[in-house]
User: Fold these one by one.
Assistant:
Number 1:
Amino acid sequence: MNMELSRRAFLRSAGAGVAGTAIGAFGFGGIEAAHASSIRAFKLTTMVETRNTCPYCSVACGIITYSKGDLRKGEKAELVHIEGDVDHPTNRGTLCPKGAALLDFAKAETRLKYPMIRKPGSDKFERVSWDQALDRIARLMKDDRDQNFVAKNNDGVTVNRWTTTGFLAASATTNETAFVTYKVVRSAGMLVFDNQARV
Amino acid sequence: MSQVYGPATSPVMSGGVSTPPPVRLPDPASLFRRRAERLRALSAGHQLEPYLAFLADLAAAQDRVKPVQPAPVLPAADELRRSREFRMPALDRSRLAREPAVSDTVDGIVARLESATMPEAARAALAVVSATGPVERAQMAQAVLDNAVPFEEVAEHVLVAAALQVVAACVAGALPVGALTTLEECLCPVCGSAPVSSSVVGWHGAHGARYCTCSLCSTSWNYVRVRCTACGGTEGIAYQEIEGGPDTIKAESCDTCRSYLKVFHEVKDPALDPVADDVGSLALDLLVAEAGYRRSGVNPLLTGY
């Protein structure tokens, strides 16, 4: 707590500070009272601004999301605006065209909210569980690596490359997540790789 | 005609990412004139019209009383360097109260305000203040700085506060801006006072950044958005505004310390003034107080809130 503010609160409660207002003291008490009673008809609305990180690329620009209504007070919150965070040292409030369109990304009807699969020969996506999705991805990765892993190049030098699968990781992650992602992907031999740790 | 651009306004910079300046000093030459104009514009049709019109006259008196006499003593270069090194305010607030220029400025403001329209109570306060001597005025100035204004003398102290603001703004305006830096707490880097309000500005090189304005010397300093100016907390910050009102004036409320400070979106409405619009948006204070938050912004013109 700011010293100044706690002092003022103390002085007020101790009766040492002001009781009257400047408006009243100058003789405008009548309009002050009228103003106070007329505003009772009005209500407050709440906007919550939340700091976040743009999910697109490894630059990890700072963003501020604006939502109407406060979830913490049991209200329903609706995302209404997203803009660059001026206080963020990386982007200083600027955003690229993709970042500037984030609101439509968050509210898109076609936004992917759970794993889906389009099986070979099928013309539509079906929802699957995370377990099914992860098992299938792991199976396919393993098969691909077994088939295409390059242990030695033409000159017989050990290279341990796996170039037929790529890995794109998120930007809004911690240092630790980025570190672990890097170790897992690189130790598998994968070269086609991007995540936040690059920057 | 061709125009010579300084590095700060070079058109080549238009696409660049610039760092907002930490501190912006007031320009005493235009500060009070603009405030008077804004108060005058706000008063038209406002429920508090007579009070705002009176404050416009007061701000006009603050404008015309300059330059303050005798000229205040500025801190020496090595004092400024030391303040900066330890992140302390450049001026000692209590020394401002004893500045000889305060008393002369009080006289100047009273003389220029006498022809204005005002209620009897205001005229009586002018008479009381003009009868006081330099010693009493220094005590009143100290009470203003301590936020310990006796409730039966609020009007008299507001007049002294107005004089203090002029002297402080003149001192602040004469400091080298490069010698200043923001402090650890959200207090004025020049005089260490609490802010009156904050503004999201549209300045070149600082577009969209938030600046707090000093309640005493009108210096502005950069302060991170979505962070409580009173306790520094970042949890439980919300922006309260009056339903159906313009979305340019909001109260940044903090659930940690239950206080709020107004944020003016100058970037959307460049006419907003940190002091004038603070009085003009009193309705927001009344509603936010009802919601259980305390006002952290200091404004002598709203003493008692």
Note: Strands of chain A lie at 44-53, 62-68, 78-84, 116-117, 126-127, 150-152, 158-168, 190-194.
Number 2:
Amino acid sequence: MADYQNALPDLLPRPFLKWFGEKGWSPRAHQLELLARSVSGENMLLIAPTGAGKTLAGFLPSLTDLTRRGQLPPGSPFVGVHTLYISPLKALAVDIERNLMKPVSEMGLPVSIENRTGDTPQAKRQRQKTNPPDILLTTPEQLALLLANKEAERFFKDLKYVVLDELHSLVTSKRGHLLSLGLARLRRHAPGLRTIGLSATVSDPMDLRRWLVPQTTPQDDGPEAPAGLVHVTGGAAPDITIMTTEDRIPWSGHVATYAIPAVYEEIRKHKTTLIFVNTRFQAELLFQELWTINEDNLPIALHHGSLDAGQRRKVEAAMSANRLRAVVATSTLDMGLDWGDVDLVVHVGAPKGASRLAQRIGRSNHRMDEPSKAILVPANRFEVMECQAALDANYIGAQDTPPVGEGALDVLAQHVLGMACAEPFDALELYDEITSASPYSGLTWELFERIVDFVATGGYALRTYERYAKIRKTKEGRWRVSNPQVAQQYRMNLGTIVEATELNVRLVKRNQLGSVGRGGMSLGKVEEYFLEQLVQGDTFLFAGKVLRFEGIRENECLVTNAFSLDPKIPAYAGGRFPLSTYLADQVRAMLADPSRWHVLPDQVRDWLAIQRDKSMLPARDELLIETFPRGNRFFMVAYCFEGRLAHQTLGMLLTRRLERAGARPLGFVANDYALAIWSLNDMGGMIESRRLSLGDLFDEDMLGDDLEAWLDESFMLKRTFRQCAVISGLIERRHPGKEKTGRQVTVSTDLIYDVLRSHEPDHILLEATRRDAASGLLDIGRLGAMLARIKGHVIHRPLERVSPLAIPVMLEIGREPVAGEAQDYVLEEAADDLIAEAMA
Amino acid sequence: MNYRMALAASQTAGPVASAEIMINGVAAHCDPLGALYLPDLSCLVVSDLHLEKGAAFARRGMMLPPYDTLATLNLLSAVIARYDPKTVISLGDNFHDRRGSELMPAAFRETIGVLARGRDWIWINGNHDPDGIFDLPGQSLDELLLSGLVFRHEPSLIAGRGEVAGHLHPSATVARRGKYVRRACFATDGARLVMPAFGVLTGGLDLKHRAMHGLFDHAALIAHLLGRDRIYSVRFGNLIG
């Protein structure tokens, strides 16, 4: 490291040395190492905890290079953008501009910096194309838009650096796939560009190091060496505690209302508190509950992804100016935003993953040499154990970030169309470019051809759409878009985040309704399916207010202030993370080992002790199955600890098997820890009398035919299909000239799914859906690992009544749609009512 | 949940249980496939076929699967074979857009030709296809009067007695013990009837939706829900939604 200190005058131009000197600082070793190695031509990955000066490190190569270049004289020929900075969050791009402008203006550097996000006005975007800034701060979607432009080559030909922030969170998603393809295209426009990845700690840095370099070169001499690594470790150990209160810890639920007075006390005791929750729903509720007891009128704000962008910017600005005492936030605030003097992080609900916890705690006190302070607030008794496990993990530095997956095919289809919009492409050249991106390095030529065919005409065996093709092969053998409308449609529908249809929520005055237009304030967006359940006068919680639903007008939901204290609550589908495999294992271990219980609160310890008396506690590698009667039903509870997604899949498959075995199952419910199935026949008795074998029931072969059969009618697969259909461009989110009636333009993807299943089961989009589902929604990989693990270790405990351990999952039984075959059964009963009525 | 694609793919000749009803004094059978049969007139009625819906979207750049027409025609063949009617009435929105019948591939044209052979075929014009049909057997009409019944595409608020219409794609939801099931349905109060959509690529509109208001006498309204091989008849008051 000393080398770099000695090389300071060579590495840093005079204004930098002067600025550091005036501040009484010296550049950190990792900043200099990253600078030196980038300048010498290496692609680099910097892994560092929050507060280590990651941002400045990432920009030093660009800033020093631009400083040496100096201001371009007026009248110079066009120069393209010098540095691209890509962040996963719009807010982060805005925040970085603020943070970066400070040293740049203090040093008086001749560097122009601008951001470009979905919120950037059209005029500014247009100007950026003709007169680009030196450093452009943007998002993966905006990059894709720029690359699909005819001017892309001119715009990017002078590109020297691409800085990728929060890389660990980007690469595991479809946005990361899109970005990797964009990066491959950037390399073609600017072959000499270097990448600088910035990341929090990850389980496998090699994944990211490969991601940052091309996997094939035009000379085809194999993949480039992985990016160089600068790894900053250390920092003070965080001070994390689990909140203890005298109040009863609830059996189930995710809101932790019992702890709200205690959380409020902590807010009062600290300067600025960040309160993280896992879902928007929790955020809404917690925010409202805090204000209910906010006798000191402390400035407490709310921040989540459904809120209006303007509202969010306001909160962010107030936060950075230290005007707030607390912010309740979801993952929108999860990443790298360095704001204000946060001295406490409260995490309500279990963090669901050790890495996520470490990341969120990093928000507090972002000087790395002082310990961060955090309090975990478990929302129910299982979460107490989960919090304890996460706490242990954070101390021992365990990491459980997901691996970088294989590139999604729907994203690839979107990219192929985008590339045709930019300029006619040669299929072979584009294939080489795409396979240089690490997520797509294993893509076969055959699969690529099918994707191109899909983009052109839908890829159907029945070739009736040739005359409507979106892209066509020219005489020279290059693919080009059929007409300008196709490019326009592409631009309107780009992106990989598919939300359920959302309507803008507008607050109006009650007497204005029906007469006056839309004077009121926009509060954000809420999902359409939720609103469809409401009738006028219903109340719900949104943007921290209790609102009265007044009606839907065109694409807006009109609401008035309600004065009700008992609102219906938005039931957001997204946002709940499944328990990580690592934490699940830790919770199982804790459950099995009473010597570790002393760290748990009394009530949780008592609960486990009673469970041991009334039933049993499974060993770490065992699967406990309890059966008991309740009401006029029989229940089976399996304690799998594999997360809600895997449990739901398991529930679907087990009910099929139980149906065949004659148990007449009626339904099931899953949480992160367990699965409960109920039936008309006595499953416990069937197991005892050996009419039902648990070994067979939980055999791994359920992932064969049963899985296939279930996928045929699975609702979850349909939801996955909807995403693929939208991202791949089969279905449009928006159609030119049809914005007003957007809701009617869309066609039901469920119907399309059924058509494909029955007529073209190996269609490329079904293939894409199955791949997504296996890794994502269905968590099939994890389920398979569990079935293998518990083989021969399934223990049945027949009980007279519900056990203590079963209470949390039993409390989740509620309104869920029935699957498949049971549907006609429900219809029959409903129809029978009519007969009874007629006979009376 | 949409059964129609699965139905189209797996039509069996098994027995089905229709619901036998009266519309303005005329006897009719509600078939589980979503067709209405009038035995005294040997007349089969289907509504909202929305043929060539996939192609209509493809023309706008959305390449929906090109199999919907085939599947709908398979269902139609099955229900025609079941009753062998003298007359077939298709109650409008026969095609998903104005150009549908003109641009339909020849193979489907032939299928319709075979189905229509030896029968009278009436194409009522709908809002999606107001210009009528192109080069297909049968005649186009805006509405048809037959034995005290009037067949038109869009239900009218006035003159409701004896009206058989489509357009609204009615569906209904029933619930038991917190479980709910939604299906396409025939909706009738004895005076008039609104048909379920027959096309496989069609959505549904709940019977409680405001677009249905004012059409029926709710006290007498019954939803005949389409089950796999029977009709489930549920009073309006017992529906949820």
Note: The longest strand of chain A covers residues 545-553.
Number 3:
Amino acid sequence: MDLTTGSTRRTFLKAAGAAAAGTLAAPYVQTAGSAGRLRLGVIDHWVPGTNEVLQQLLERWGEANHVEVTVDFITTIGNKLLLTAQAESRAGSGHDLFALEFHMVPMFKHRLIAVDDVVNDIVAAYGPIAELSRQAAFLDGAWRGGPSPVMNASAATVARRDLFLEHAGIDLTEWFPASDSRDPAKVDRWDWEAFGKAAAALHAAGRPVGAAISPVTDSSAWLAQLFASYGAAMVNEQGEIAADSDAVREALEYLTRLAEVMPDSVYAWDDASNNRWIISGTGSAIFNPPSAWAVAKRDSPDVARHLWHCDVPRGPAGRFRAFNSVFWGIWDFSENQSAARDLLRYVAEPEVVVAMLEASQGYDLPLFASHYDRTAVWAEAGPPAGGLYNYALRGDERTLTDGYPAPPEIAARISLQRVVPNLVARVTQGGESFDDAIGWVENELEGVLRS
Amino acid sequence: MRVLPPLLRRKPAVAVLMCVPLFALILGLVAYPFFHALFLATLNKAETAFVGLDNFSFLFGRQTFWMVVRQSLLFALVAVVFKALIGLAAAHAINTIPTKGQRKWRGMMLIPWVIPPALSTLGWWWLFEPTYSAINWGLTKLAVPAVPWLSDTFWARFSIILVNVWVGAPFFLIMYLAALKSIPGELYEAAEMDGAGPWQKFFHITLPMIRNIIAITTLFSIIVTLANFDIVRVLTQGGPLNTTHLFATYAFRVGIESGDIPLGAAVSLFMFPMLAILAFIILRNVRRRAASLA
């Protein structure tokens, strides 16, 4: 990727303004139904200030196209986004456009209109959409949503470079430099065993690493990437239960050791706990998008300047990064589907995507490879300079979603029922044998697979 | 003076008419949701086909479901017992205060019950927060080891029961206080003249006189406690290891969060027969005692 041309934090509003101005100036062809009112339910962004930029862009589009746009920002904490979607889909009333995380698209596909024409146009203009994202939203032969310009994110390793260097002897800035000059040998050494050794050293120094092993999204995400890197799966690609395997046992064995050097509180963490943990200065590493860094930059700059984003450790089966693709779907009860379609096209335009990338300080990752070349936000965000460079995928990581490699509908249920975090906690906290825990998870998976 | 139409001059007709809003509420907010839940529980996951009792038989084969049954009963029994004991002790204590000073104590003791539980539980969550618990901060200042309030099964169960007792004990208090005030003072005076001590008065006058109130209050509380949702939802979300899930939170996890509404409906309906039998037994005993007193 060419990231040599770019912009700074200061320019994002300019970019946002340009995007909106472009829309105002462009010869927009108003379709028959694209006036009236449009209600959006979108995700309340974790990075401070991003909601405002999105609202500004959407309202300007609305003004230019004579559409009264109303935006509700809905948090994902406590599953409020999912609950709202559930309520609206059953009531047949609510927003017109609704933001759907990857596991929500299969759940609500029966109430989402197909937007093949919209997505095909976008793909024709900007190239293919990431395969993982396609799998999440191209269901039963139709696209059930258009790409969201915000909240597409991955769970990178977010580590304190100073603590890793001091206590574990690992210079993360050297192993994962803010340039394309990686040393393959060093990157290869970054595996779960190396991470575990570093975690033990950091624990001994009173600065442990922390990752949730509780019934929350963050927990499902980082455990999904660890399990996949050991080749461990709950349900295989054919939709068959595959939990009773040597690979699952290996992953559990490793986690037994890792959990010993993490704080006991990880069994009760929510989706904000790891952010608080690293921002407080106590923790040395988490798995997260750059929201923790962005908040630390505002609230705890001394911590933020040491946070370095890098690849997820590798396992015997490879290196995986959990990626949350977000789509904006149109409910079948929407009274303004035409305007909603038009808006989906608009938010996929490069100017909007780049404006949101810069507003979110690099948190949001585009679903189209071609958009990565349009900004240098990951190279320029800081301090520390280059701290986010490796948040955008640079090496051999493959992306996945929770529940990998199961088919999307089953993967969504594995994720939402928090099957893997409970399996892990039964072993690492409950002290169950591998066989007992696997027996339990097979029983749970029967429930996941029922039709 | 305006003359009422003949129909409204008949007392039964007026009574029925005045009950219409109540019937409408019960039909709309109790009967319809109940029968709709029954209907949902007989559908397949996609809600496209009738499957009879398959959802229930499926649940019976799930380890997690039986764990939820056990811990719901444990939660309800322990919490109701403590609420009853604390409520009784507090009611007695307040009843001994001169009438003039009782009001402020009654008001203060009712505060946990009148605050919206989701809000007060959020306050408790801050006290128990896994990493930065305010209570643990105080304990560590006193060189006492931190307690894993929400991350350890025993302490997580302890925490949700503690909060439930804190919220619910005032209900017992107010019911028992009303019952205590209805006991004629002459009974105690006569007992004192016969040389009865405090415990004898309690066991031979107070308890028999408020037995029906205790039974009804306990029944109400068991129903409400078994159906509890907000405390677990806010404090633990059912964790760790699903060991704090109750019927309602597990039904929510399965039905709403995982998109299996029929199975969730089946979970939530599971407590209905248990509660119906319990209510039948308790109310029958109450009626019998009332009849014998009459």
Note: Chain B touches chain A at residues 44-46, 58, 61-64, 130-132, 148-153, 156, 233, 236-242, 253-254, 256-260, 263 (CB under 8 Å).
